[in-house]
């Protein structure tokens, strides 16, 4: 009889990633605001880092849900992108990715500017889909964060289905 080893686990907190940029002219449009493509790029990178941290493997982006651009990001703003894994499959990970802008010199509060959900697939050394750890949320804060992400994604998908 062969003994099956238990799948490794990882926590939501282990995946948490935050990246920071200053919005510079090369990433702005003619209005001095962030290009949507630049924001998507930062979101994809931050989400991929979260998925790599979680799975401890190379990952590829499988999909991105509808992206909501909620507020503009102005030239010179500090752009903070946050991501974490909140759900897993056999080889895939769902990450919530949020983008905020702030202007510390103006004592301005951080404002949410974009949000979406990304799906990443883990790869083995042969670049084939590889299993990912089971998600654990050992603290109340991690459990609440996961539940909020699951609920928000469910609501968004329902809204899109109604529109579509």
UniProtKB/TrEMBL annotation:
Residues 141-164 have a biased composition (Basic and acidic residues). Residues 13-126 form the HotDog ACOT-type domain. Residues 1-14 have a biased composition (Polar residues). Its EC number is 3.1.2.20. It comes from the Archaea. Gene3D superfamilies: Hotdog Thioesterase (3.10.129.10). The keyword Nuclease does not apply. This is Acyl-CoA thioesterase.
